[in-house]
């Protein structure tokens, strides 16, 4: 009989009865019973230019010594095609890059591996891939060397089709944030940084470290009255309805709105009566306007207190903290006023369905666990004992073990909010710029979300594991509330990692002066350089006050969307789209061509969700009777085309029309009505014929009535 002899690197030699030896590869199985498989990199089937060495990883060996052009492969048998999470265990001194493919299908391009500072210092990176069923070679092709590979794990993606009872509001439901209809809501959001709180680094206005200090510098040049005029002009121009529309068109579905308390109430030092709050209408009116815009455009808004009374951390640029005055944590009046402000806001927006909740404190960063940190009054007010603190070693609270004052603040704020609003989710940020959640969980409220922030960190599974563990242990949703200040490649890999791990996200920020890391870049007038030079170099000769005032008014006007420069590639790195289709790469239509619904270059009143349809990935859904998806196509030959639409509808009643944007909106076909399929995820295919001219233009799928899902469109010339 035939005998099988297994030798190194996953290659078997099959010795037949006739004595002929033939190479056979070890086959890794992915079937209905085994939804994941870990592939030992050192047991490759075939390779070019690859070596194996002893490893500190558990299997004992890793593949490595990679150079550009090297490759290695393994045999896999995939019984169920669809969406898989691919995890790679890598170590790198110099970074690196590779592609994952089969013989017939490019699965992924990993364009920038993190540097782990050692050939045996291991991290895990992840991404989502679509794999067709069948037995095939899984191939890693090295595009840039300088790294080692220990293993690859393929895990079938769990479907997020959880439905919670509809409440009419965004809320927490177990480990998910759900929309008003109870469907999982995947925030892809943008923050409005630098609007109500001008951060000096965004204004290029160092050495000022906080808004209050920058305003003092400015008042010294133009006077207090002109400063007030400038700030009003800034607030009027920086964020408008057009910004909301541009954010939505770029593929974002939500906006995080940072608030400065001093637009809503007086600081405690200026209150005429202690324990009484003077409310300032301007801040409420401006937030009302933003929420009205978001409601009209059907995009969610999440207010966040970016600068709390007194300042919630020693990082002055983000909290407007002034060390000469008591912080939030050093005066009970600051704490009381902050909670009163949140209660007033919650009462105002208790029934606002496009408000997706309240982010109570942006990036607290305060060392609580040292004997001299908190005043006795604040300890008493927060019901925190003044004894038995361990001494933390980080002044921004990164090593605090208990965070008792922060937890007590949250508990009291939640109680106050729930007296007037039981509808909305509440987002909880940790100490240490949002990331130290020690001692904060569990909370008694069942409509809370754990929020963390993400800056200057490798995009590896290890960097998220702490929060994933919190999610699993306490059955709470996660929200990555803020990230950015990096390059587009980092953005792209960060979004991929978050979405693979089912974590909604918001980015920072919409506009900055002369920056490519924001969605839009502001270019101030030339005269602004004279003011910056005066501040930075402490020149004794002041610029002319009238000149300085006019320059600052021009700066405020330069922030309007029509004057700002869109960083299309930055937005595309986050959502795959930009604010329009002008810069989008066209989809070639020559033979039968499938266009995935989520690949639109322009979107209105529609959003994505993970699909249960064959092939996995995403589908687009409409809840309203308006909106569109736009695709830039390049048709090789004019003529009649068969158009096939992959649709689903729970109750029917939906409708859409295909149009061509060449000179105007030319109708290419007839109105289509998706049939009742019995489920939002039970897809069927409908079809029609359309007339397509030759050339490059935009194909628009315009919704005439909501209540249906679209997974893909296929175009094929009729022969």
Textual characterization of the structure:
The strands form 10 sheets. Strands 4, 6, 9, 11, 12 and 14 form a 6-stranded mixed β-sheet that branches. It contains 14 helices and 40 strands. A hairpin with a 5-residue loop joins strand 2 (11-15) and strand 3 (21-25). Helix 3 (241-249) packs parallel to helix 4. The chain folds into 3 domains: 28-156, Jelly Rolls (Sandwich), CATH 2.60.120; 189-565, Glycosidases (TIM Barrel, Alpha-Beta Barrel); 586-717, Jelly Rolls (Sandwich). By secondary structure, the protein is of the alpha+beta class.
CATH homologous superfamily caption of the largest domain: Glycosidases
Q: Mind summarizing the main beta sheet?
A: 6 strands, mixed
Give the N-to-C terminal Cα separation: 55 Å
Rounded Rg: 28 Å
Quickly name the level 1 CATH class of the largest domain.
Alpha Beta
Please give the CATH architecture of the largest domain.
Alpha-Beta Barrel
User: In one word, what is the shape?
Assistant: globular
List keywords for this structure.
TIM Barrel; GH; globular; signal; about 30% strand; hydrolase; alpha+beta; carbohydrate binding; glycosidase; 14 helices; Jelly Rolls; about 725 residues; disordered N terminus; six-stranded mixed beta sheet; 3 domains
């Amino acid at each position: 009989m035939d005998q099988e002899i297994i030798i190194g690197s996953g290659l078997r030699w099959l010795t037949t009865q006739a004595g002929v030896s033939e190479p056979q590869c070890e086959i890794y199985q992915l079937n209905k019973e085994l939804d994941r498989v870990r592939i030992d990199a050192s047991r490759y089937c075939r390779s070019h230019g690859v070596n194996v060495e002893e490893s500190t990883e558990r299997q004992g060996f890793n593949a490595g010594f990679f150079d550009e052009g090297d490759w290695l492969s393994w045999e896999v048998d995939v019984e169920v095609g669809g969406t898989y999470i691919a995890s790679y265990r890598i170590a790198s001194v110099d970074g690196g890059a590779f592609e994952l493919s089969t013989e017939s299908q490019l699965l992924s391009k990993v364009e920038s591996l993190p540097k782990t500072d050692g050939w045996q210092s291991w991290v895990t990176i992840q991404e989502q891939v679509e794999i067709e069923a069948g037995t095939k070679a899984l191939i890693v092709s090295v595009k840039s060397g300088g790294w080692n590979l220990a293993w690859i794990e393929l895990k079938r993606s769990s479907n997020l089709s959880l439905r919670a009872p509809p409440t009419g509001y965004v809320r927490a439901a177990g480990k998910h944030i759900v929309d008003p209809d109870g469907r999982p809501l995947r925030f892809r959001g943008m923050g409005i940084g630098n609007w109500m709180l001008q951060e000096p680094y965004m204004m290029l206005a160092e050495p000022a470290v906080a808004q209050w200090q920058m305003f003092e510098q400015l008042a010294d040049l133009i006077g207090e009255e002109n400063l007030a005029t400038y700030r009003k002009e800034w607030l009027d121009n920086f964020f408008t309805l057009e910004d909301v529309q541009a954010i939505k068109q770029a593929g974002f579905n939500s906006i995080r709105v940072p608030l400065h308390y001093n637009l809503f109430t007086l600081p405690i030092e200026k209150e005429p009566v202690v324990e009484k709050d003077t409310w300032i209408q301007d801040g409420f009116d401006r937030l009302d306007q933003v929420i009205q815009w978001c409601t009209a455009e059907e995009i969610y808004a999440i207010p966040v207190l970016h600068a709390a009374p007194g300042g919630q951390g020693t990082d002055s640029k983000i909290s407007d903290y002034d060390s000469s005055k008591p912080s939030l944590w050093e005066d009970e009046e600051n704490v009381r006023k902050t909670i009163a402000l949140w209660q007033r806001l919650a009462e105002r927006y208790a029934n606002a369905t496009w408000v997706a909740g309240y982010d109570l404190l942006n990036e607290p960063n305060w060392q609580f666990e040292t004997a001299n940190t908190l005043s006795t009054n604040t300890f008493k007010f927060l019901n925190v004992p003044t004894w038995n603190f361990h001494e933390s070693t980080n002044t921004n609270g990164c090593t605090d073990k208990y965070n008792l004052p922060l937890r007590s603040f949250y508990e009291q704020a939640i109680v106050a909010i729930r007296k007037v609003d039981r509808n909305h989710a509440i987002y909880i940020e940790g100490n240490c710029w949002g990331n130290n959640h020690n001692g904060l969980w569990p909370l008694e409220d069942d409509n809370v979300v754990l929020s963390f922030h993400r800056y200057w960190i490798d995009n590896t599974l290890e960097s998220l594991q702490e929060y994933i563990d919190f999610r699993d242990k306490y059955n709470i949703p996660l929200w990555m509330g803020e990230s950015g200040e990096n390059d587009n490649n980092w953005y792209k890999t960060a979004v991929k990692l978050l979405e693979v791990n089912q974590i909604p996200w918001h980015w920072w920020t919409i506009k900055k002066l002369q920056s490519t890391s924001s969605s839009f870049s502001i270019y101030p007038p030339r005269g602004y350089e004279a003011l910056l030079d005066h501040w930075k170099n402490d020149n004794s000769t002041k610029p002319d006050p009238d000149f300085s005032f006019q320059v600052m008014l021009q700066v405020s006007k330069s922030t309007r969307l029509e004057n700002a420069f869109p960083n299309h590639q930055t937005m595309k790195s986050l959502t795959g789209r930009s604010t329009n289709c002008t810069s989008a790469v066209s989809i070639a239509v020559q033979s039968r061509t499938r266009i995935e619904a989520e690949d639109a270059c322009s979107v209105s009143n529609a959003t994505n969700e993970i699909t249960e349809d064959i092939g996995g990935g995403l589908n687009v859904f409409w809840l309203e009777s308006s909106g569109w998806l736009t695709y830039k196509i390049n048709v090789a030959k004019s003529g009649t085309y068969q158009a096939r639409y992959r649709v689903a509808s729970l109750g029917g009643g939906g409708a859409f029309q295909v149009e061509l944007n060449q000179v105007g909106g030319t109708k290419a076909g007839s109105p289509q009505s998706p049939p009742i399929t019995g489920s939002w995820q039970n897809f069927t295919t409908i079809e029609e014929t359309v007339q397509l001219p030759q050339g490059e233009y935009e194909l628009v799928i315009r919704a005439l009535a909501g209540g249906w899902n679209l997974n893909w469109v296929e175009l094929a010339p009729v022969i």
